[in-house]
From TrEMBL:
Record's bilayer topology term: Multi-pass membrane protein
Entries under SUPFAM superfamilies matching the protein: MetI-like
Any GO BP: transmembrane transport
Subcellular location as annotated: Cell membrane
Cellular component terms per the entry's GO annotation: plasma membrane
Pfam families, A to Z: BPD_transp_1
Residues spanning the membrane: 72-96, 108-127, 133-151, 198-218, 238-258
Classification via Gene3D superfamilies: MetI-like
Ranges where the ABC transmembrane type-1 domain occurs: 73-258
Name of this protein: Peptide/nickel transport system permease protein
Family: Belongs to the binding-protein-dependent transport system permease family.
Organism: Saccharopolyspora spinosa
């Protein structure tokens, strides 16, 4: 019974994650309306022509929702891939390196890691106002210290096991040991960490939009929509509730799917 319930939960998460991703990627193709066109008075309630009503300056909320997911998804995916690439290289290298070199690298990473993530992101992103690339790099750099610690700990734990010591003793090259012995053993950890970082990247990217970082108005962005329309929730709650709900659904679903994938990978080893 628990197994069936677990499978049903994973299926629901997969449907939600894929559904939100498809909406974000192809939403702009589902409407011919302009996300910047003023259609009515501000905060008009839902009507026939405006299924989700209007926002703070009278724009169609549904059209802006369909256009606002793509920048969040692209920035979150890009920053996650960048952070993961850096973290895997640095984490595995420091996990297998000599103790002194490993600790020196970790101390440098810790200097970045002690800074509050939101403050660090604000400093980097505000240095290049209006740039989505700056937001992507800022989010990635915020995620790197946390990922490096996790990957390094997993690599050091595996490197102390017998089969890795045997591979080193028989003279296998460093890269061969890493690829054939260490990397398969830490794959479950890497998948779980990827899901956690992607969830964090969604949160940070949406927060960047909420704070007005990256491309500014009138570009549609789910995070920015929540901030812009919060004062008018009593008149029309949909400009806040719909993008906020989509962000939460996507982040939670992806995180649970990554945890399940990591569990299955770990169970097969």
């Amino acid at each position: 019974m628990d197994h069936r319930r677990s499978r049903a939960s994973i299926a629901i998460c997969a449907v939600l994650a894929i559904g939100v991703a498809v909406l974000a990627l192809f939403g702009p193709l589902l409407t011919s309306g302009s996300p910047t066109e003023q259609r009515s008075l501000p905060f008009e309630p839902a009507t026939g022509p405006l299924p989700l009503g209007s926002d703070e300056i009278g724009r169609d909320v549904l059209v802006r929702v369909l256009h606002g997911g793509l920048p969040v998804l692209v920035l979150a995916m890009g920053s996650t891939l960048l952070a993961s690439a850096i973290s895997v290289v640095v984490g595995l290298a420091t996990g297998l390196a000599e103790r002194r070199a490993s600790e020196l690298t970790v101390r440098i990473i810790d200097v970045v890691g002690v800074a509050p993530p939101l403050l660090l992101m604000l400093i980097i992103a505000t240095g290049f106002p209006g740039s989505d690339l700056a937001v992507l790099v800022a989010v990635a750099l915020v995620c790197v210290p946390f990922s490096v610690r996790v990957v390094r700990a997993a690599a050091r734990q595996v490197s102390a096991l017998g089969f890795v010591e045997i591979a080193r003793a028989r003279g296998d090259r460093w890269w061969s040991v890493l690829r054939h012995d260490v990397l398969p053993a830490v794959s479950g950890t890497l998948v779980a960490e990827l899901g956690i970082r992607f969830t964090a990247a969604i949160h940070l990217t949406a927060t960047a939009g909420f704070l007005g970082l990256g491309r500014g108005a009138p570009a549609a962005n789910w995070g920015r929509m929540v901030n812009e329309n919060f004062p008018g929730m009593a008149l029309n709650p949909w400009p806040v509730l719909v993008p906020a709900l989509l962000l939460v659904m996507f982040a939670v679903s992806v995180n649970l799917l990554a945890d399940e994938a990591a569990h299955r990978i770990g169970g097969r080893r």
